[in-house]
Design a protein that fits this description.
Layout lengths: L6 H7 L9 H14 L2 H10 L10 H30 L6 E4 H8 L12 E4 L5 H10 L2 E3 L4 H10 L6 E3 L5 E5 L13 H6 L2 E2 L6 E3 L2 H14 L6 H17 L4 H10 L3 H15 L7 H4 L5 H11 L11 H16 L2 H17 L1
Parallel strand pairs: 1-7, 2-5
Antiparallel strand pairs: 1-2, 3-4, 4-5, 6-7
Helix pairs in contact: 1-2, 2-3, 3-4, 9-10, 9-12, 10-12, 14-15
């Protein structure tokens, strides 16, 4: 069976398909969703059609348990954002939430059933030292595993080493750019901050504009090498793109913004993959207005996403994930920096 016809994907694409699910289909869909980080979204779709479905005994308990996890994390991020806002108030720095925290705090379309592990923020690089000092005062400390890692982050990366609160043990990733300083793609974080949307509850805290959330999500997925959550992140993009289309967003608006931010290729990959996997409804002319991609790249991305569960995994999934991991490093650093870095990482892992 083609992995794109798996029960989970049929349910996410066309919720009406769940009306005809057998007990075996439900078992597979729930197992696939749990592994892919999509159980919350599957549960929301199933609850919306509860009067039409034949859920097997015990299936609803999985959805109820996941609902509790999502609600608890939603409350936790609200509290954490409040603490960040208070900690950084005196710095005057604009603070923009990224990824899952942004979805949850703004209750955007990608917040549906979404779980996440940490909070990501973006601040201007010129105010990074003030931000780090203020966070230290309020209990967030850098936990780099070695002096090399500390130097690696501060010299080359687009973020500080992860910060962990001494009491709550929550993780905060503080970014000053979308991509590393040494990346082949140069992004312009000041333009994202300029169009960020302030949250009513925390005036200091912002989220990216609707268009910029799409572009950052695409940048994160198709530039990084973290493919264990690839299908979930593509589902985020599906929801963001669908909402943009439903609200009358134009292809030209999205394409022009991607050009300005130098994120046209990540957007291209995102649009083609979302359309293939989720049959995402897109603004007229969007696919036609994007660059033509190499077919083998699309095949590699899709194969990597199939690794979300053993019943989805294609024969080339592991090779695709490894290739994209290598690609992410190649995009992140020039060769004269990358080779010594990889040698150091390999040596460190062998000694450990």
């Amino acid at each position: 069976m083609n992995w794109l016809d798996a029960p989970l994907l049929r349910a996410l694409r066309t919720p009406e398909a769940m009306d005809d699910f057998s007990a075996v289909d439900w078992h597979l869909a729930i197992s696939q969703a749990r592994s892919a980080g999509l159980l919350g979204r599957l549960g929301l779709l199933a609850r919306a059609r509860a009067d039409r479905l034949r859920l097997p005994e015990g299936a609803d308990r999985h959805f109820t348990a996941q609902d509790c996890i999502v609600a608890r994390q939603r409350n936790a991020v609200q509290w954490e954002v409040q603490q960040i806002s208070e900690a950084l108030e005196r710095t005057g720095a604009p603070v923009m939430l990224l990824k899952g925290a942004a979805y949850a705090a703004s209750n955007g379309p990608a917040a549906a059933g979404r779980t996440f592990n940490d909070v990501d923020i973006l601040v201007p690089k010129a105010q990074l030292a003030d931000v780090e000092h203020a966070l230290h005062v309020h209990g967030w400390l850098v936990e780099a595993s070695s002096a090399y890692d500390e130097r690696y982050y501060r010299r080359w990366m687009h973020e500080l080493p992860p910060m962990v609160h001494v009491q709550r043990r929550t993780t905060l990733d503080v970014h000053h750019n979308l991509l590393p300083e040494t990346a082949r793609i140069r992004t312009r974080p000041e333009l994202l901050l300029a169009q960020a949307v302030a949250l009513t509850r925390w005036p200091l805290i912002h989220v990216p504009s609707e268009v910029d959330q799409i572009l950052h999500s695409a940048c994160h997925l198709f530039h990084e090498g973290e493919w264990e959550n690839g299908l979930r992140d593509l589902s985020d993009l599906h929801l963001l793109l669908s909402a943009f289309h439903m609200q009358g967003g134009s292809a030209q608006q999205l394409i022009e913004r991607a050009r300005v931010l130098n994120l046209l290729m990540p957007l291209t990959y995102a649009v083609h993959c979302a359309a293939t996997v989720f049959h995402t409804r897109l603004p007229d002319g969007l696919q036609e207005g994007l660059p033509v991609t190499r077919a083998w790249m699309q095949t590699t991305f899709l194969a990597a996403m199939s690794g979300a569960h053993s019943t989805l995994r294609t024969a080339g999934a592991s090779a695709a994930q490894f290739a994209l991991y290598v690609r992410s490093h190649w995009l992140r650093m020039p060769m004269h920096l990358l080779i010594p870095h990889l040698l150091h990482q390999a040596t460190t892992q062998r000694e450990a």
